[in-house]
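2024-03-11 09:14:02 DEBUG pipeline.ingest accepted 1 chain
2024-03-11 09:14:02 DEBUG pipeline.ingest length=514
2024-03-11 09:14:03 DEBUG pipeline.predict start
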Amino acid sequence: MSGAARMIRNIMTLGIWTLVSRGAGLARDLMMANYLGAGAVADAFNVAFSLPNMFRRFFAEGAFNQAFVPIYAKKLEAGEDAETFAQDAFAGLSAILLALVLIGTVAMPFLVWAMASGFVGDARFDLAVTYGRITFCYIFFISLFAMLAGVLNAHGRFAEAGFVPVLMNLVFIAAMWLAAVAGWDMGLTLAWTVPITGVAQLAFTWAAAARIGFVPRLRMPHLTPDLKRLLITAGPAMLAGGVVQVNLLVSRQVASGTEGAISWLVYADRLYQLPLGVVAIAVGTVLLPELSRRLRAGDAAGGQDAFNRGTEFALVLTLPSAMGLMVLSHPIIEVLYQRGAFGAVDTANTALALAIYAAGLPAFVLQKVMQPLYFAREDTRSPFRYAVWSMVTNAVLAVGLMPFIGFAAAALATTLSAWLMVGQLWWGARRMGPEAQFDDRLMSRLPLVLMACGAMVLVVWAGALLLQPWLQAAGWRYPALAVLVGLGIAAYFGSGFALKAFRWSELKGLRRQR
C-alpha cells in the first residue's frame, strides 16, 4: 500500500469514528435543547463545560500534543527510546494538570467572570460557578487521554482513540435520560456527568495503550534533556493555544450580554463541527505523524504527496458541506432543534450563527491541514505569530461590530479571523521545501470541485423551496430534510464524477488497498 493510500485509509478510519461521535454529540445537544432550551441553566452549563475544554485544547490537544507527537514519532522511526520519553512526558503533564485543577477550582468565580462577564448580577453567574467547580477536574482526565491518544496515533492506531468521544456522548445521553425519568436536577446532572465521562475516557485509552505495550507510570517528573526539548518546543504552541482561547473568550463575552446567545452559538457550533471534526481533525491528526516520519526519512516527494492528498481529500468533503450548511441553515435548525423549550426566535438566531460559521468552515479545515507542515518541523513559533494577528483581528471585529449586529459579531469575527490565519499559514509555507507546495493534480481539480458545489447549491436551493410545506409539517419534517440532504449529496457527487473532480477508479483502488 502506498504511503498516501495508507494515510487516507487512516483518515477515513478516524473520520468514521469522529462522524459517529459528532452524531452522538448532536443527539446529546438535541436532548439538551429540548430539556433546557437556550435559557439560564443552558447558558451556565455551556460556560462551565467550556472552561475545562478550553484549557484542554490549550495544554493537551494544542500545545502539548503538537510538540509531543513529532518528537515521539521521529524517535519511533529512528528506533530510539521512545517509551522513556513518553513516560517522562506523561509524568510532567500529570503534575502540571494537577496544579491547574487545584488553582482553577479555587479561582472559578474569576474564570466565569473572564468567560462571561455578562452573567454578573443574574442567576447564570452562580449557576456557572457551581457547575464549573464540579466540571473543572475533567481537564485532568481528558488531557491525559489526549496524550495517550497521541501515542496510539503515532503507532498508527487511530480507531481506539477515535471511539472515546463516542463513549462520552453516550454517557451524557444516558445521564439525561435517567435525570428525566428520576426527576433529578438537569443542570447538576449534566455537571456531574462531565468528570464521570473523563474517568471513562481515560480508562478506555489507558487500556488501549497497554495493549501496544505502553503502560503509563505515575511518578514524580524529571526534567530530562528530551523533556526540556519538549517544553521548549511546546512553549510557543502553548502561547498560540492561548491566543485561540482568547478568541473564544471574546466570543463568549460578546454573546454573554444577551440571554440565550451563548447557547445559540454552542448549538450552531455543534453542527458546523460535524464536518470539521470528521474531516479536519481526522486529516490533521493523521498528517502530523506522517509528515514527521517523512521528514525524518528525507522523503520530500512522499511528504508532498501526503500533504496534497490530505488537502484534496479535505476540500472534496468540506467545500460542499460549507455551502450546504449556508444554504440550508434555517431548515436544518428548525427541523432538528425547534421543539420543547427551543422556540422560533432561537431557531432564527442559531441558523444565522450556523450560516456565518459555515462560511469559515473551509478555513478551519485548511488550518488543520497546513499546521502540521510547521509542527512536523518542530516550528511552533511561526503559528504563534500568525495566531496573534488573528486574535487581534478577532477582538477588533467582534467588539467593533457588536453594536451593529449584536451577538452575530462573535461568529463573523471568528470566521474572518480564521481566513486570515489560513492566509498567513500559506504565505509562511512558501519558504519550506517541495513537500509544502500544492501539486498540479490538486490545482487542476479544485476548480472542478467548486463547479460541482455550485450544481449542488442550485439543487438544494430549489429543493428547499419545493419541500417547504413538508419541512414544517409534523411527521414529515425529518423525511423531508433527509430527502433534501440526499438530493444535495447526489447532485454534488454526480456532477463531481461527471466533471472528473474526483474519480471512481481512485476510490475503488483505495478500497482494494484497505
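2024-03-11 09:14:41 DEBUG pipeline.report The radius of gyration is 22 Å.
2024-03-11 09:14:41 DEBUG pipeline.predict end
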